[in-house]
Amino acid sequence: MKRTLSFLLCAALLPAAAFAENAPAHWSYDGATGPQNWAKLEQDFSTCKLGHNQSPIDIRKTSKAKLPPLEFAYSPSPLKILDNGHTIQVNYAAGSGVTIDGKRYDLLQFHFHKPSEEKINGRSYPMVAHLVHKNAEGKLAVVAVLFRKAPRTRWCRPCGTPCRRKKARPRKWPE
Q: Does residue 100 contact residue 139 with C-beta atoms inside 8 Å?
């Protein structure tokens, strides 16, 4: 599971612009197209003026609860990378998903936001990955993976995985 998730994230961080299809941005996080105006931008966004818990959110109060586990079942897949104007989206082929409380949700796509749309106790993160899943009834389950900035290290592995050694030694690939 960890290896597959790492593969997904590494694959998406390839120079996506070389493979991307371009579309203009239609919203932003500030200014005339920011959250306060999302409902006015397109008819599809009209529900943004009704809600109080949509992105961007700041999670400030939590409580302990016994929740069912998330059971990830991801497999390698052909990827289609799309630059939709405000994020890099990676569409995933059928066959992978997550089971939540006995219900299966198929992985449709994952995408990134920089900075994260979510905050925790007012703290923003440099980036977030949203893994978007859908069940047979059409309900969505989105898993957010928040990224912290890693300390500066010498990069020595494929996919940009940093070495954790004090001194890097010369290597031949693959090892």
A: no
Interacting residues of 50 by C-beta distance below 8 A, sequence separation 6+: none
* Length, in residues, of the chain: 175
Contact yes or no for 98/143 (Cβ under 8 A): yes
Alpha carbons 117 and 99: distance in angstroms, whole number: 24
pLDDT in tens, 6-60: 434 443 443 343 344 444 457 777 788 887 888 888 887 777 777 665 667 888 9
Cβ atoms within 10 A of the Cβ of 139, count?
10
How many other β-carbons are positioned within 10 Å of the β-carbon of residue 113? 19
Q: Which of 88, 81, 45, 70 is nearest to 133 (CA)?
A: 70
pTM (predicted TM-score):
0.65
Q: Are 20 and 88 in contact (CB under 8 A)?
A: yes
For residue 151, give the H/E element and its range.
none
Distance in angstroms between the alpha carbons of the first and the last residue of the chain: 22
Positions marked active-site: 86
